[in-house]
């Protein structure tokens, strides 16, 4: 057969060759043709860009083949709607997924460049706050790896989560400028753009068929432009798309339709339009910039749904097939306006009857809940909502009216229930309850860990679970072993390959085979060697980031996550103060040397969280400068915890701190990343800790603290934190030491709000769990003294982490919720 020029192009073009030589040629080519720099004067950043473009070139044939396959075949696509995607650095991950890391290293070496140095240059897109955004990114990795047709839809923020600097012990927020030097992974598609309406009013009219039609006359329109990033699976041809929307002003001639040619008004509108996708909102921000946040949510949801409808048209499918073609997962309530917007597009734009539109909407959408904290459940004041989205609000009212009729029929005369379940909270200032809208408008609602899903049904969703028990599911979160093991812990990956074979990367349950080696002394030595090297690497990073020298033989006790009172970083800090006191009092006391590492950002408006950071830094300053603590105790606050530095933090941990108040942490995912990398957990029975302990066995998990039930009970009985202080001399001393200015250079005011909060209300039961936590930490120290026992437990943690792969989680979503199947992509097809 004669060679087909199009398929040959895919296999052997200068832009697709995977060997070191082809890569080298590609890099030189891109350096000159895209980066416009000859090698002689190229900076390391130029080399990074040239390499990134060369890797992207090698992904594009797969991307095109994936598009082609999805366009031609009869299939259902999962659309993951999320206001956040914390995808982390892309270069290393794409090299790993293509399987060309070694070749790239050789190619760059031949060009006089060090691959690791180039990897370190990459700015990560910080388009998320924490767990929820990172979960979305892990899921995109698993979706592509499992060859599931899918698209991630979100917002292309110009400024992501702020960079954190520590000055004088305080957090200082610095603007994230991730796009300043260009983003080689993004492909902007000006021709894929949609208009989104805001404000104005509605008008009703009767059409020639006698049906009531509503027209929305908006005050202004914003244009959303698609910015695509390829999401390649691990060693497969499937390359899915992360499609993020950037807002732009509608061109002036379009604007004239709405503004009758008012030039100054038009300029003003342009400013507003371009502000829409400017900045990511930090969570835990009370009331800040609410209006813009709602506008962002509607903006990305509307663009995404319009995009899905356009794809349907392109495939020549009737609109009635929408739900067969798409499953849309709502990552928390942030995209829940999708319920109203899909109804609007189907009823107002596509002119479908209400009931048919409702059936499509309900069959398409599913909702994941990520929190039980009542204050974190999203609501929007009615005047704000009506001002911004008058037509979607009318639709919500109509959905609510029909829904409440159903409730009334089921529970006649139960007005209290109606008020509890309504989408509109009528007590006080009226509000729209987004979780209710999502629950009514979706075919499935799921929690993110077994305990969380159970509590969801018992507490915030109780009435809904009674009405529709079949709608509620659990899908315990998972994380990708490609990024959090293979890429970030290559030493461990090599040892695992050698011991259990390479298949663990896509079938994490194969790590069970490690159990057979858990007591093998030679294997244990190798295991410890890997951990030791990772700790040395972290020690280097600590030294250059904060100037503190830490001993890599000490127990590395790590808590990294967003700073929040419910996560109880201050409980950990109280234990450090207790240890410090004990060592001061008894300098001869034998202790296992420990290095406490903290990391995480506080929301800029969350004063208590910022004070906790200040406390940790205050304690660090005193402890690290006290010669009596030398060789025994070190405390480090590692600044700017993000995906990039997570890569070297998780693999270096001996102990993982998962100490939230039981019932408050929906799942946690850091807990899983630590476990996979062989850290032991000290934790409460909260979120996925419960399942981690189930998997690893109670012998291999340091459990302490009140259960979720006990927490509830204590709150009901009336909690008196003073009783805990009175019953525990060490606790009283630790609090007094902090209050007395010992960690604030004599300033007795600095920590007053924190100490008073603990002594008076202690909403997260820090003091109630203190004694149990300290006792449990003593068990940790005892276990650490026995290196063989510790290593065995460490091996068993990795061996039993299989359940926490995001591949397992995605398979569960596919089976339980999306009813979706893999489709393999053939690279040799004609393009
Ligand atoms: C809401 C309104 C206005 C501005 C910001 C927000 C906002 C943004 C982000 C609210 C919440 C978030 C993020 C929440 C989050 O990360 N939750 C975590 O999700 C993880 C993945 O399921 C869980 O493992 C964690 O337990 C949960 O806390």
TrEMBL record:
> Which reaction is this enzyme known to catalyze?
[(1->4)-alpha-D-glucosyl](n) + phosphate = [(1->4)-alpha-D-glucosyl](n-1) + alpha-D-glucose 1-phosphate
Is DNA damage there in the keyword field? no
The first-level EC class reads transferase
Recite the UniProt keywords alphabetically: Carbohydrate metabolism, Glycosyltransferase, Pyridoxal phosphate, Transferase
E.C. numbers: 2.4.1.1
Needed co-factor(s): pyridoxal 5'-phosphate
Query: InterPro entries from the xrefs?
Result: Glycg_phsphrylas, Glyco_trans_35, Pyridoxal_P_attach_site
Pfam families referenced in this protein's UniProt entry, alphabetically? Phosphorylase (PF00343)
The entry assigns this protein to a family as follows: Belongs to the glycogen phosphorylase family.
Q: What's this protein's function?
A: Phosphorylase is an important allosteric enzyme in carbohydrate metabolism. Enzymes from different sources differ in their regulatory mechanisms and in their natural substrates. However, all known phosphorylases share catalytic and structural properties. Allosteric enzyme that catalyzes the rate-limiting step in glycogen catabolism, the phosphorolytic cleavage of glycogen to produce glucose-1-phosphate, and plays a central role in maintaining cellular and organismal glucose homeostasis.
Query: What is the protein name given in its UniProt record?
Result: Alpha-1,4 glucan phosphorylase
Tell me which species this is from. Answer: Paraburkholderia dipogonis
Instruction: Identify the taxonomic lineage of the organism of origin.
Output: Bacteria, Pseudomonadati, Pseudomonadota, Betaproteobacteria, Burkholderiales
């Amino acid at each position: 057969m004669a060679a087909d020029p199009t398929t040959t192009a895919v296999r052997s073009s200068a832009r697709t060759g995977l060997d070191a030589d082809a890569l080298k040629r590609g890099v030189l080519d891109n350096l000159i043709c895209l980066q416009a720099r000859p090698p002689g004067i190229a900076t390391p950043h130029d080399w990074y860009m040239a390499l990134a473009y060369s890797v992207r070139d090698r992904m594009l044939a797969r991307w095109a083949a994936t598009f082609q396959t999805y366009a031609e075949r009869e299939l259902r696509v999962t659309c993951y709607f999320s206001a956040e995607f914390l995808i982390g650095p892309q270069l290393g991950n794409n090299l790993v997924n293509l399987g060309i890391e070694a070749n790239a290293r050789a190619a760059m070496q031949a060009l006089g460049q060090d691959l690791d140095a180039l990897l370190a240059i990459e700015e990560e897109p910080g388009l998320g706050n924490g767990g929820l955004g990172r979960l979305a990114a892990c899921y995109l990795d698993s979706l592509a790896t499992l060859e599931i047709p899918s698209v991630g839809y979100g917002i292309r923020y110009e400024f992501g989560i702020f960079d954190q600097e520590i000055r004088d012990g305080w957090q200082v927020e610095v603007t994230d400028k991730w796009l300043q030097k260009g983003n080689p992974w993004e492909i902007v598609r000006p021709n894929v753009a949609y208009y989104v309406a805001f404000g104005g009013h509605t008008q009703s009219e009767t059409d020639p068929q006698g049906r009531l039609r509503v027209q929305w006359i908006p005050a202004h329109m914003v244009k959303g432009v698609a910015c695509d990033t390829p999401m390649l699976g691990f060693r497969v041809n499937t390359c899915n798309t992360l499609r993020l929307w950037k807002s732009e002003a509608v061109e002036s001639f379009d604007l004239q339709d709405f503004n009758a040619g008012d030039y100054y008004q038009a300029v003003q509108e342009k400013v507003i339009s371009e502000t829409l996708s400017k900045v990511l909102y930090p969570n835990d921000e009370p009331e800040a910039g609410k209006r813009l946040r709602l506008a962002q949510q509607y903006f990305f949801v509307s663009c995404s749904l319009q995009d899905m409808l356009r794809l349907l048209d392109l495939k020549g499918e009737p609109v009635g097939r929408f739900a067969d073609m798409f499953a849309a997962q709502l990552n928390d309530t942030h995209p829940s306006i999708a319920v109203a917007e899909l109804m609007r597009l189907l009823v107002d734009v596509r002119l479908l009857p209400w009931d048919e539109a409702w059936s499509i909407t309900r069959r398409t959408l599913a909702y994941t809940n990520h929190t039980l904290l009542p204050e974190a459940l999203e609501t929007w004041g009615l005047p704000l909502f009506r001002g911004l989205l008058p037509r979607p609000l009318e639709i919500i009212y109509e959905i609510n009216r029909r829904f409440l009729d159903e409730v009334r029929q089921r529970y006649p005369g139960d007005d209290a229930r109606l008020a509890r379940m309504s989408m509109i909270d009528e007590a006080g200032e009226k509000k729209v309850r987004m979780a209710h809208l999502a629950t009514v408008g979706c075919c499935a609602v799921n929690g993110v860990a077994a305990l969380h899903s159970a509590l969801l049904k018992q507490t915030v969703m109780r009435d809904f679970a009674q009405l529709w028990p079949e709608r509620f599911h659990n899908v315990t979160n998972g994380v990708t072993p490609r990024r959090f093991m293979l890429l970030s812990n290559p030493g461990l990956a090599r040892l695992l390959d050698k011991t259990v074979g390479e298949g663990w990367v896509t079938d994490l349950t194969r790590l069970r085979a490690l159990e057979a080696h858990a007591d093998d002394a030679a294997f244990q030595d190798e295991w410890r060697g890997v951990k030791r090297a990772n700790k040395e690497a972290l020690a280097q990073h600590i030294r250059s980031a904060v100037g503190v020298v830490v001993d890599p033989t000490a127990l590395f006790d790590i808590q990294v996550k967003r700073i929040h009172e419910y996560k109880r970083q201050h409980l950990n800090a109280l234990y450090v103060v207790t240890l410090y006191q004990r060592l001061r009092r008894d300098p001869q006391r034998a202790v296992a040397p420990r290095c406490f590492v903290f990391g995480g950002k506080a929301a800029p408006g969350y004063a208590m969280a910022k004070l906790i950071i200040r406390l940790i830094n205050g304690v660090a300053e005193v402890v690290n400068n006290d010669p009596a603590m030398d060789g025994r105790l070190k405390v480090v606050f590692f600044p700017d915890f993000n995906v990039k530095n997570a890569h070297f933090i998780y693999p270096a941990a001996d102990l993982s701190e998962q100490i939230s108040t039981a019932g408050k942490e929906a799942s946690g995912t850091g807990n899983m990343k630590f476990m996979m990398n062989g850290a032991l957990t000290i934790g409460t029975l909260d979120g996925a800790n419960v399942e981690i302990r189930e998997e690893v066995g109670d012998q291999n998990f340091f459990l302490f603290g009140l259960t979720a039930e006990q927490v509830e009970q204590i709150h009901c009985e009336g909690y008196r934190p003073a009783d805990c202080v009175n019953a525990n001399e060490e606790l009283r001393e630790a609090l007094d030491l902090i209050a007395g200015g010992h960690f604030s250079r004599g300033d007795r005011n600095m920590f007053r709000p924190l100490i008073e909060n603990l002594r008076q209300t202690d909403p997260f039961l820090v003091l109630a769990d203190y004694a149990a936590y300290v006792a449990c930490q003593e068990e940790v120290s005892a276990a650490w003294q026995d290196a063989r026992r510790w290593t065995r437990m460490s091996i068993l943690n990795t061996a039993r982490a299989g359940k926490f792969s995001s591949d397992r989680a995605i398979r569960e979503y596919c089976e339980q919720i999306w009813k979706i199947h893999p489709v393999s992509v053939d690279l040799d097809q004609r393009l």
